[in-house]
Amino acid sequence: MNYLLKPLKVGNLTLGNRLVMPPLVTDKADAYGKVTNEMLDFYKDKTQGGYVSLIIVENSYICREGKFDKRQLSITDDSMIEGLNKLADAIHSNGSKCIMQINHAGGKANEKEIGTIPVGPSAFSDNSVRELCRQEIENLVQIYGDAAGRVKAAGFDGVEIHSAHGFLLNQFYSPLINKRTDNYGGDVYNRIRIHLEIINMIRSVVGKDFTISLRLGAADYLKGGTTIEDSLIAAAEFEKAGVNILSISGGLLGFTIPGVTEQGYFAPLSEAIKKVVALPIILTGGITHAKAAERLLIDNKADLIGVGRAMLMDSKWAKTAVETLKL
């Protein structure tokens, strides 16, 4: 049997195959972060035929202070639910499941858009980012929970917590940015304290049967940054806290590794993490050919394969991949 075409049960979700479209920045929301017809058309196009089993809808900001991009999707208040429900319905009507990624950009927030100095776990020496106080961290945990509740209310099948690519939770995770001396900084257990609080808050809001994914920037690839050894600990703790899926990507350097171009270049990270958790693992990273995706699954590097840029460039990529493997 072709591994890429095998169904997979994740909690209460049954996925028809192992193909995932990871979060892609579309810049198709309106100025207020609401779903537009342009965005609906984009996702209808990408899910035509249901060849992609799971769509993870793009990086969506949970509060104004966490906004990264001018036309970024918003999950900040209940007025967003109606449009997001149309988006979930559009994806479901084509036969795919959908999860929505929620995020706070932290120190990477767009100062023009948010109208104030961005926040992070620690202040930057040039005063371009200020340190969050304990009360603000507590408030943020609640904001994440509220956002996840809206995702569920909008009819999505799950929610994904973004802790990769240098955004706020990745900033807490990385010792290169997190210089706190309280119990949110220091060793890896303290640096993931906010993650665990957010997971627990979200679970209390959405209930035990709603899928929670977490995208982990599993290595910074920078001296003094996070390493796979950190992520083996973090992944195990996230599993204990109730996460259902882990999506493995890069940390402060984003979704690439300098000088590395082979398909599935985060595979050493996902393979190591698979050995310490029983959760389904999504692997992304430069995958452009169906046979490469199939090989990564056969070699037990991951359970699900995320194909982003290839699907962005070619809406028929998944259809071609599925038909090729069926031959």
What does this structure look like?
- It is a single chain.
- This protein is an alpha/beta fold and 327 residues long.
- It has one domain: TIM Barrel.
- It is 36% helix and 17% strand.
- It has helices at 37-47, 81-93, 111-114, 134-153, 168-173, 188-191, 193-206, 228-241, 267-274, 290-298, 309-313, 317-326, and strands at 8-10, 13-15, 19-21, 54-61, 73-74, 97-103, 119-120, 130-131, 158-163, 211-217, 245-249, 281-283, 304-306.
- Helix 8 links the parallel strand 10 and strand 11 (245-249).
- Helix 1 (37-47) runs parallel beside helix 2 and helix 4 (134-153) packs parallel to helix 7 (193-206).
- It is globular and about 55 Å long.
Mean pLDDT: 96
Low-confidence stretches: none
What best-fitting shape do the alpha-carbon axes yield? globular
CATH class: Alpha Beta
Instruction: Please tally the β strands and state the result.
Output: 13
Euclidean distance between termini CA atoms: 12 Å
The percent range for strand residues is 15-25%
Counting DSSP H or I runs of 4 or more residues, the number of helices is 12
Spatial order of the strands in the main sheet? 3-4-6-9-10-11-12-13
Task: Describe the main β-sheet briefly.
Answer: 8 strands, parallel, barrel
CATH H-level superfamily title: Aldolase class I
What name does CATH use for the topology?
TIM Barrel
The CATH architecture name reads: Alpha-Beta Barrel
Output the helix-strand order: EEEHEEHEHEEHEHHHEHEHEHEHH
